[in-house]
Amino acid sequence: MKVKIDIILGFLGSGKTTLINSILNSNKLKDESIVIIQQEIGTVKIIDNQVIIVEKKSSESIDENIIKEVISKFAPDRIIIELNGMDNVNELINSSYLDKICKINKIITTIDMKKANIYFLNMSDKIREHILNSDIIFLNNSSTMNRKQVASIKRNIKGVNEIAKVYLFSTLKNQEKAFSKNKINIMEDTSDNNAFYIILSLCLVLLISMLFASAKGFINLGIGTSYLKEFNRIFMGIFIETIPFIIIGGFISAIIQIFISEDAIARIFPKNVFLSCIVASVIGIIFPICDCGTIPVARGFLKKGLPLSVAVTFMLAAPIVNPIAIISTMYAFADMKEVVVYRVALGMIIAITVGLIMSRYSAKDVVTENIINCQCELCSGEYANTKNIFKKIKGVFLLAGDEFITVGKYMILGAFFSSIMQVAMSQNIIDLTSENKIISLLIMMAFAFVFSVCSTSDAFIGKSFLNNFPIGSVMGFLVVGPMIDIKNTMMLLGSFKKTFVVKLLSCITIISFILLMVIYL
């Protein structure tokens, strides 16, 4: 059986030894023979006499040779390594020897909250290394900090390692109490349980599939099957149509952040709010991305310090002034060229108007995650400031991947809800046209929100509605669709506060409705 290894990371005084004592006192490991390797001796001592303590100098790195010696001499069930905060943990966990005879069970980082910001500023590479490799992170001594400061540090941590479990304690005494009351059990090996639940889940899926297949022979599932097929068709259509543009948008955002300096960005956009919104409304011509790709780019603008008004204007106008969207609209409405002019003009006017209204908000006040002040490896400037072109290219791919994962998960959720709503929508609603222009315009705007079609292909769908709706109402579909729909709303909720998203959507809807009604009444 492989020897379990737990690694405790953290700087001097962060509570590493206190954590080890708490683990030993909880009696969860009482049936195991344990060796503790201490590389950094602090003010607190190990108090358990049943464990073997091997002390090493801070200057002496703990490597596979030391672990091999410990295993040969003591034959323990578990080794707990209290690592020096400045030592290289990557060399230890990537050792090929350890893979053969040992198993890395848990990697835990302890952070003294009073010094956390100093670490992020002055020893950012080292603390990121700790956080990135950790399964569990203990934030100690938070009593002197307010909620905003704690939330900021948590965001920094999640920006580096989103899946690590984080425990917050106001004092080290509270941490000890939590262990003594068995509220925390961090040393449990859950891999076997996880494997069991995975196998059980697969068996359940197989069983349900078999029952479904058996029932199909006895029950007429014609209606249900048609709904499932329609849902699958719509969902896959949205997914396949959207993914390429999110990838393109992620790469454009990454290139802006890595290769374009703040000074260059400042020269592109004027300081005047109105003029900067005008520039933002036309700059989408050089970016061939649809609405689902603009959100990563807008995030990139905010990270570069551009005002919220510029990001919002670009986000709303870019899908409409996109050359591919313009060409597709020209083909779809070949006999109605004025539709192209109206669509682009109205889109730019609405985008600029909404952008100017949003200029009263500060980006820092409306983002949900730490988009602007993120201190993770990708956002800290490490790749942007280097002169090594290969490291910059590496940074572009890493950042594009990060943007894709961040935005993509909300796109999938939005596509799922959009597909359900489209399947549930009765044909009677589509046929429920009226001579009342207000109702028909509202219906088309609602369709634009629900259908979630990319701006590069929505013109052909809009053309098909001319059999039932007047051109003024169809313009609502063509203008509002690229700005707001279900999948975009979900993606926005992943980056901005709910209250801001509601205000933004309301503002777009009201301004679009008023402008379209004025023109087509």
Automatic annotation (TrEMBL):
Which keywords label this protein? Cell membrane, Membrane, Transmembrane, Transmembrane helix
Respond yes or no to whether keyword Cell membrane is given for this record. yes
Q: Which Pfam families match?
A: ArsP_1 (PF03773), cobW (PF02492)
Q: Where in the cell is it found?
A: Cell membrane
Q: Give TM segment ranges.
A: 195-214, 234-260, 272-298, 310-333, 340-358, 407-426, 438-462, 468-488, 500-520
Instruction: Tell me how this protein sits in the membrane.
Output: Multi-pass membrane protein
Broad class of the protein's primary localization: membrane
Provide the CobW/HypB/UreG nucleotide-binding domain boundaries.
Answer: 7-166
Naming one, the record's GO cellular component terms include:
plasma membrane
Q: Give the family from UniProt.
A: Belongs to the UPF0718 family.
Q: Which PANTHER family match?
A: UPF0718 PROTEIN YCGR (PTHR34184)
Instruction: Quote the protein name from its UniProt record.
Output: Putative GTP-binding protein YjiA
Q: Which organism is it from?
A: Clostridium vincentii
